[in-house]
Amino acid sequence: MANAIRVVLAEDQAMVLGALAALLEMEEDLRVMACAANGREALDAVIKLKPDILVTDIEMPIMTGLELAKELQSNHPATKTVILTTFARPGYLRRALDSGARAYLLKDRPAKELAEAVRKVHRGQRVVDPALATEAWGAEMDPLSERERQILQRAGDGKTSTEIAGELHLSDGTVRNYLSEAIAKLGAANRVDAARIARAKGWL
Fold first, then answer.
1. CATH classification of 146-200 is 3.30.450.20, yes or no?
2. Order of strands across the sheet with 30-36?
3. What class does CATH assign to 5-137?
4. Residue ranges per domain, the chain?
5. pTM to 2 decimals?
6. Which residues does the UniProt record annotate as the domain HTH luxR-type (predicted)?
7. What's the rounded mean pLDDT across residues 54-72?
8. pLDDT tens digit string along 100-154?
9. How far apart are CA 27 and CA 53, in angstroms?
């Protein structure tokens, strides 16, 4: 179909990626241009192919789906992001929408809903699961700054302050200050506890 909606898929689980591609290709007005197993591959495909829609999971190697959405919103706005995930948490939804995603769908929904969401986003609409949207409306606000989130995520993965400082080009003292702020905001006992709380709420 000459005017088919062009889609790039990003999913790190090979079987899921293959199934999604096969399902979308069954729709006459959708065309899967490329499949990516990590965020960097997905971004490279977007830059090269300039698709209409990127469908991506949140948790992706190298670049997350939220990082991809933010990058596309800033530098490749012609490609709209659809998040397809297992995370039914208001915190993730809010972060996705703040990052520029135009749709937030759960993987347990029927395949037809994904295809229809792609069409709606292509028409300029936003698509969010109604139950999750209602829950997000009354959910607790994320108190973390972007830098606190970056540092806390790494701390939760077991990295030391020195390792985090090296990755983010900060001093050890600055990293410790950010961690102290995050721990205080979350009312946590320590950095590991803070990361656990933030992940449970969808803030990491």
1. no
2. 30-36, 5-10, 53-56, 80-85, 103-106, 127-128
3. alpha beta
4. 5-137, 146-200
5. 0.68
6. 137-202
7. 91
8. 999 999 888 887 889 999 999 999 999 987 767 655 555 567 788 889 988 998 9
9. 15
